[in-house]
Amino acid sequence: MTTVQEPSQVKLTEFEDNDQKPVGFGRMLRKEDARLLRGRGRFVDDVQLPGMLHLAILRSPFAHANIVSIDTSAAEASPGVKAVVTGETLKGLGLAWMPTLSNDVQAVLATDKVRFQGQEVAFVVAEDRYQARDALELIDVEYDVLDPVIDVRRALEPDAPIIRTDLEGKNDNHVFDWETGDEEETNRVFAEADVIVKEDIVYPRVHPAPMETCGSVADFDPVEGKLRLWSTTQAPHAHRTLYAIVAGIPEHKIQVIAPDIGGGFGNKVPIYPGYVHSIVGSIVTGKPVKWMEDRSENLISTGFARDYIMRAEIAATREGKILAIRTNVLADHGAFNGTAAPVKYPAGFFGVFTGSYDLQAAHCKMTAVYTNKAPGGVAYACSFRITEAVYLVERIVDVLAYELQMDPAELRLKNFIQKDQFPYTTKTGWVYDSGDYEPTMRLAMEMAGYDELRKEQAEKRARGELMGIGISFFTEAVGAGPRKDMDILGLGMADGCELRVHPTGKAVVRLSVKTQGQGHETTFAQIIAEELGIPPADIDVVHGDTDNTPFGLGTYGSRSTPVSGAAAALVARKVRDKAKLIASAMLEVSVADIDWVKGSFSVKGDPGKSVTIQDIAMRAHGAGDLPDGMEGGLEAQICYNPSNLTYPHGAYICVVDVDPGTAEVKVRRFIAVDDCGTRINPMIIEGQVHGGLTDGVGMALMEMISFDEDGNCLGASLMDYLIPTALEVPDWETGYTVTPSPHHPIGAKGVGESATVGSPPAIVNAVVDALKPYGIRHADMPLTPSRVWDAMRGQATPPI
Amino acid sequence: MQVPAPFEYERATSVDQAIGLLERLGSSARLVAGGHSLLPMMKLRLANFEYLIDINDLHGELGYIRLGADEVRIGAMTRHRELLESDALAQVFPVFRDAEKVIADPIVRNRGTLGGSLCQADPSEDLSAVCTTLDASCVIRGANGERVVSMEEFHVGPYETAVADNEILTEIRIPVKSGKSGSAYAKVERRAGDWAVVSAGAAIWLDDKGHIHDARVGLAAVGPNTTGIPEISAALRGHEPDESLFELAGAIAARSCDPSTDTRGSAEYKRHLADELTRRTLRKAVERARS
Ligand SMILES: Cc1cc2nc3c(=O)[nH]c(=O)nc-3n(C[C@H](O)[C@H](O)[C@H](O)COP(=O)(O)OP(=O)(O)OC[C@H]3O[C@@H](n4cnc5c(N)ncnc54)[C@H](O)[C@@H]3O)c2cc1C
Question: Ranges for the Aldehyde oxidase/xanthine dehydrogenase a/b hammerhead domain (chain A) (predicted)?
Answer without folding.
Answer: 38-147
